[in-house]
Amino acid sequence: MSSTSHYPNLPSEIKSRSLAINDLDVHILEALPATAPKPGTQSPLLILLHGFPELAYSWRKVMVPLSAAGYHVVAPDQRGYGHTKRRGTQNKHDRYTFTDDLAPFRMLNLATDVVSLVYALGYTSVAAVIGHDYGSAVAGHCALIRPDIFKSVVLMSAPYTGPPTPSTFAVKTLIEGLPSLVPPRKHYVVYYSTPEANIDMSDPPQGLHAFLRAYYHAKSGDWHNNVPRPLGALSAAALAQLPLYYVMNLKETMSETVARDAPSTDEAANNAWLTEAELGVYAAVYAETGFQGGLNRYRCATDARWSEDLRVFRGKRIEVPAMFLSGKSDWGVYQVPGAVDTMRRETCAKMREEDFVLVEGAGHWVQQEAPGEVVKHLLRFLSGPEGS
After folding, report:
1. Which pLDDT tens digit goes with each residue over 8-62?
2. What is the dihedral of CA 158, 159, 161, 164, to 10 degrees?
3. Residues 11, 15, 21, 25: what is their CA dihedral angle, to the nearest 10 degrees?
4. How many angstroms separate the CA atoms of 117 and 142, rounded?
5. Segment holding 176, helix H or strand E
6. Are 158 and 134 in contact (CB under 8 A)?
7. Which of 89, 64, 75 lies closest to 11 in space, CA to CA?
8. Distance CA 46, CA 130 (A)
9. 82-91 burial by CB neighbour count: b if 16+ within 10 A, else e?
10. For residue 302, is pLDDT > 90?
11. Left, alpha or beta for 232 (phi > 0: left; psi -120 to 50: alpha)?
C-alpha cells in the first residue's frame, strides 16, 4: 500500500493502491480494522461507490469510523474517474473523449466492475454495497443481480427503482418536452449527454475551482433554496419545479447555471465540510481527467441501446436488506416523481420504515456534510436483525 499524504485531511489510516481488474487499473482507498480478524476468517467488507462529480476521496470522513467498527472498507475511483484508468494508459490520469466506446459504461458492466473488485480483494461476500448519487444505481443493480455476494445495500441520495421499465421511457418523453415550456428548459441528464457538457465544465469561465465550489454549494444544505418536496404527478410542469441545476434554462451551461448561486468568498473560505484544500483535490484531478468519463454514464442512461441487457432482470426485486439515506435538503430524493414510493413499495422487499433516513441540515453530499450522522445510521443498519 502507498501513502496518500498528498490528500488533505485524509486520515493516515486510509491507504491507496491500484488493482488490475478486467480492462482497468482500479484505484482504491482502503481502511482496515485496527484488530486483525481471527485466523481463517475475514473482516466483513464494505464497498463504497461515489457519484458525480466525485471521487473515492468523497468517502474520506466515514471510512475510518466504519473500519473502527470492525469493517474492511474500500472505496474505488469508479470507471472513468480519478486515478482509475484503462490498462496501458501511460499518463498518471486517463482522459476520455466523447467519441470513445460507450459499451464499457453501460450499467451491467459497471456492476461487473464492482463484482470483479470484490474477487480481486479476495472476498466472495460483501456485508454492504453503499452507493451515493449515480453510485446508488450501481449499488442497486449489484444487490439486485448478485444477492449471493452483496448481503445488504445502502442507496444514498438517489432512489433506486430497478432496471428500466416502460415508465422509465415515459419519463424520458417528458424530459424531451421540457424545451416547449415557457421559459424553455432542459433536463441536466440531457445536457450531460451532449458533447458540449464536458467542454463547458472542464473550462468554465469562472475557472474549474470556482465552478466546482458553486456546484457543490448549490446542491448542499448550505443553499437556502434547497427545500425539497414531493412533486406529485409526473409531468413536465412538475419537473420544471426542480432547481435549475436539475432542470436548466435551455440556453445555459451548467457553469452558468450554478454561478448565480455561488457562495461568497467568506462562505467558501469558512466551509467546514469541504475546505478550500479539499476542494482543490477535486479541481486538480478533474483538470487532468475532464468530466467525460463520468458523463458517459448519463449518455448510456439516455440511450435505450445501453440498457437492453438489463431487460432480463425486469420485475426482479432487491431481496436483501436495503436502506435509503440522504440529506433532508437534497432535491435528489424527489427529482423523479414517484421514485421514492416505487423504491420502498416495489423495488426493495426489505426496506424497513426506520431505514428510510433523511438527515437534517444536509444536502446532496450527505457523507461529507454530516459524516457523523451517516456513520451512525450505517452502523445501526448493519447491526440490525437482517443488516449484518
Report:
1. 999 999 999 999 999 999 999 999 998 988 998 999 999 999 999 999 999 999 9
2. -20
3. 90
4. 12
5. helix 166-176
6. yes
7. 64
8. 7
9. bbbbeeeeee
10. no
11. left
Q: Across-strand partners of 49?
A: 131
Give the C-alpha separation, 281 to 102, whole Å. Answer: 27
The angle formed by the CA atoms of residues 356, 151 and 115, to the nearest 5 degrees, is 115
Amino acid 92: pLDDT: 87
What is the torsional sign of CA 73, 113, 167, 296?
positive
pLDDT at residue 387 in the model: 47
Place of cell 448481503: 151
Q: How many CA atoms lie within 13 A of 304 on its CB side?
A: 11
DSSP label at residue 58: G
Chain centre to alpha carbon of residue 361: 19
Predicted pLDDT at 361: 97
Report how far residue 127's alpha carbon sits from residue 150's, in angstroms, rounded to the nearest whole number.
Answer: 6
Instruction: Determine the Cα–Cα distance for residues 140 and 155; give it in Å rounded to an integer.
Output: 7
Rounded to 5 degrees, φ, ψ at 184 are -65, 140
Q: At residue 3, does pLDDT exceed 50?
A: no
The packing angle between helices 276-289 and 208-218, to 10°, is: 120
Q: How far apart are CA 5 and CA 11, in angstroms?
A: 8
User: Which band of pLDDT confidence, cut at 50, 70 and 90, is reported for residue 74?
Assistant: very high
pLDDT in tens, 107-131: 999 999 999 999 999 999 999 999 9
Element containing residue 63 per DSSP (H, E): helix 60-68
Cell matching residue 224: 437556502
Round to whole Å and give the CA distance between 259 and 255. 6
Answering whether pTM is above 0.90, one says yes
Q: Please, where are the H alpha helices in the chain?
A: 60-68, 107-120, 134-145, 166-176, 188-192, 195-202, 208-218, 236-239, 254-259, 265-269, 276-289, 292-301, 339-342, 366-369, 371-382
CB 303: neighbour CB atoms within 10 A? Answer: 13
Does residue 78 carry a pLDDT above 90?
A: yes
Residues 370 and 361 sit within 8 Å (Cβ to Cβ): yes
360 class by beta-carbon count within 10 Å (0-12 exposed, 13-18 middle, 19+ buried): exposed
pLDDT in tens, 327-341: 999 999 999 999 999
348 pLDDT more than 50: yes
